[in-house]
Amino acid sequence: MRLVRRLYDWVLHWAETPYGMPALFLLAFAESSFFPIPPDVLLIALCISLPLKAYRFALVASCGYVLGGVAGYGIGYGLWDALAASFYAYVPGFHPDVFAQVQALFSQYDFGVVFAACFTPIPYKVITIGAGAFKINFPVFVGASLVSRGLRFFIVAALLKKFGPTMREFIERYFNLLSVVFMLLLVGGFLVLRHVF
Question: For residue 59, what are the domain limits?
Answer without folding.
Answer: 2-196
